[in-house]
Amino acid sequence: MRGAKLVMILVSIGAAACGRASEIAGEPACGELRGTPPREPVPVVVILNDAERRDRAGVYGGHARTPAFDAFARANLLFLRAYSQAPWTRPSVATLFTGLLPSQHGVGMEAWTPPAAARALASELTTLAELLQAAGYHTAAFVSNPWMSRRFGFQQGFDAYHDTFEWQYPGEEISKEALRWLATVPPDQPFFLYLHFLDSHRPYPALPMEEINASKERVAADPHRELPAYAKEELRTLVQVEGADPQTAAQVEPSVTLLEMAYERGIEDFDRALALFLDGFARSWAADRAAVIVTSDHGEALYARGYGNHGQGLYDDELAIPLAARLPGISGPPGGVSCQVGLVDLMPTLCSYLGIACPAQLAGQSLIDAGTSPPRFLVAEAVGSQPRHRAIRGERYKLIYEPGNPPDGPRANPFRLFDIVADPEERSELLASGDARNREIAERMQAILLAPPPPGPQLTERLVPFEGDTEQRLRALGYVQ
To answer: How does DSSP assign 383-420, residue by residue?
Structure first.
């Protein structure tokens, strides 16, 4: 595995354990989960809604109406601080599937300029599906994002891999397909089911005119953020109106708030698909025994930084994700799990929960027996076309390193430091003040972030050229201009 960065990070913590260095401590090990996993094989379902940022779901205080996710989260384990290790799908899901950072599995770390070719998941790596398949599980996936095509290696370990859905395929249809597959699984046969929905990804659903009229107060309060000219033009194509005659629809002035409402409508579409699946699943033989995880691969910028899509930055607009889990036998605090966790932790957590040996030197850690683990930092990387950009977060501070061309233009100092406790929206950059204390914190975190990783085995690089309608589908999703 390329670059065992977790080892490097944990070793570096010891050198920064005194004086002011305590202010940049890594996140303490999560000790909030309690209980004992069942001894018999447990069916596993992982549900991922593409491009859903955490602050939009109702249970997190967002505007989107998400009764299915909210009820599931409140009845089970709600994680309050979950983060992706990459701001776009291909490297993020590769991390979920392997328990490795993008710089270790290599997916999304190539500096690509579409349309060209993209790196596939290396066959030498062991995926979660392969682990479970080897343990006797039936495995199936239903995916709707073209980046999840089997051509990019994500089918490894799946007995059935359904990747033929178009990008606009409704999530409720994916739920129906998955329930039909579940009906073929014999009782007491353990299975792993992965569902990848695309309902909240661009292009967003059209906004009904009656919803716009009913939200006049919110629309009127639009902050009218200063946007570049190209972004204003994008808004005109992204915000679509339905239920009105062309003349009335043309009078609706696109705004960031309307864009947010359309985006939230996509999250609500996913929530209906989630309700359909969970209702059907509740009637299956596996309902009371299965481990079920609901999350996302990344968020969406929504012009908080001047751009609207994702994959361009390492701010929490793109990294903070929803995460809820049902792990029979495991419980957590009633108000939610406050530990800082990443998608990189899901594979080792499931390995530990299921009693299956994981590959050695994973970057993540099991959340159900992490009490003895040392403090750690979470890393994010794999910015599209900028593979050198990275970010590291500890218990209080987050350092972003952008040596290339960041979205807001080149800067003299490629580092940005944020106090993510006092400033969770990352609005007040601390190094600009010239304060010596902030500079010392940044320098210590910089040493951890940029220390060379120990050498690891080489992976076979396989670049997959775009073929057929892949470029067209990626263009519709906003990945290709």
So the answer is: BTTBTT-EEEE-SSEEEEE--S--TT---S--EEEEET
pLDDT surpasses 60 at 67: yes
Distance of CA 121 to the CA centre of its chain: 17
Tell if the pTM clears 0.85, that is, is over it.
yes
Cβ-contact 456, 4 below 8 angstroms: yes
Three-state DSSP class for residue 134: helix
State yes or no: pLDDT of 60 exceeds 90.
Answer: yes
Distance, CA of 127 to CA of 136 (rounded, Å) = 15
Strand partners, 380: 391
The pLDDT tens digits of the residues spanning 292-321 come to 999 999 999 999 888 889 999 999 999 999
Q: pLDDT tens digits, residue range 186-214?
A: 998 999 999 999 999 988 999 999 999 99
φ and ψ at 381, to 5 degrees?
Answer: -160, -160
Residues paired with 330 in a beta bridge:
35
Residues 138 and 193: beta-carbon distance below 8 Å: no
In terms of Cβ atoms closer than 10 Å to its own Cβ (0-12, 13-18, 19+), residue 335 is exposed
**Alpha-carbon radius of gyration of the chain:** 22
Chain center to CA of 311: 11
Inter-CA distances, 215 with 210, 218, 237, 433, 448, Å: 9, 5, 21, 40, 47
* Calpha distance 227→168 (Å, rounded): 28
Residue 282 burial class via C-beta count within 10 angstroms: exposed 0-12, middle 13-18, buried 19 and up? exposed
| Domain annotation for the chain: domains and CATH numbers | 32-204+257-374+467-476 (3.40.720.10)
- Angle, CA 376 vertex, CA 101 and CA 393 arms, to 5°: 75
436-450 and 5-15 helices, crossing angle to 10°? 140
Q: For the segment 399-457, what is each residue's pLDDT rounded down to a tens digit?
A: 999 998 777 677 789 999 999 999 999 999 999 999 999 999 999 999 999 887 655 55
Amino acid residing at 399: L
415 bridge partner residues: 401
CA distance 96 to 3: 17
Q: CA dihedral in degrees (472, 476, 479, 481; nearest 10)?
A: 80
Q: Is the pLDDT of residue 18 over 70?
A: no
